[in-house]
Specification:
With 215 residues, the protein is α/β, with parallel strands linked by helices. The chain contains 10 helices and 6 strands, in the order E-H-E-H-H-H-E-H-H-E-H-H-E-H-E-H.
Length: 215
């Protein structure tokens, strides 16, 4: 069993970067609980990708309420083992900022601010980065029908929001990983390298480029 010094790790990054793949494998590596996002249970998501303006508010509110429900689960509030999640609650606001109009954003923000009090927060965040071309390539490869409708401009804007958010992020230790040229799904060594890097962290902001590290 590998020791996990952080009790709650959240993996983040734009669509297609490999969050769920890394989170599930890190959970296995560290013998931790795996906390997954609620994308597969959102009934509005397919409609959103077909017609964003028509379904944006319902999609975002479902994400917010379901993510809050997940994080307020007794197993998360009083964990008996470490947790690795494939989402950070703050990402909900990033997507909302991108998709909601002014009136919807005002209503969403009021509800968000009221509901997040007391929600468990991670003590380490891992932010995965990759260029748009690589995100599109991975989205196409995994072949989820509704994701094939994602517009490249939407991905570009989303990636920019992530970059802006993490540029000033200081709430927890942060590990920024260049995920452009690593194969998290098929190469256990890539996951092990990231796990080892996590085990070395002592706080603050850190960068990890697996390609450069291996060369």
């Amino acid at each position: 069993m590998y020791y996990m010094k952080y009790q709650f790790i959240a993996i983040e990054g734009p669509i297609g970067v490999g969050k769920s793949t890394l989170a599930s494998q890190l959970a296995t590596h560290f013998k931790a609980s795996y906390l997954t996002d609620t994308e597969s249970t959102n009934p509005y998501l397919k409609t959103f990708y077909r017609d964003p303006s028509a379904a944006a508010f319902h999609t975002q509110m479902h994400f917010l309420t379901s993510r809050l429900e997940t994080l307020k689960n007794p197993a998360v509030l009083n964990p008996t083992q470490p947790i690795v999640a494939d989402f950070l609650l703050d990402k909900d606001r990033l997507f909302a900022e991108l998709t909601l109009d002014h009136t919807e954003w005002w209503m969403y923000s009021k509800l968000y601010d009221q509901q997040i009090k007391g929600v468990p927060r991670p003590d380490l965040v891992v932010y995965l980065q990759a260029p748009i071309e690589r995100l599109i390539e991975r989205i196409e490869k995994r072949g989820l029908g509704h994701e094939q409708r994602i517009d490249s401009n939407y991905l570009q804007q989303l990636s920019a929001l992530y970059e802006r958010f993490f540029y000033t992020y200081s709430e927890t230790p942060l590990l920024i990983v260049n995920a452009a040229d690593i194969n998290l799904a098929d190469d256990p060594l890539e996951v092990k390298n990231i796990a080892n890097r996590i085990s070395e962290l002592e706080g603050g902001r850190h960068y990890f480029n697996p390609v450069s590290a291996a060369s």
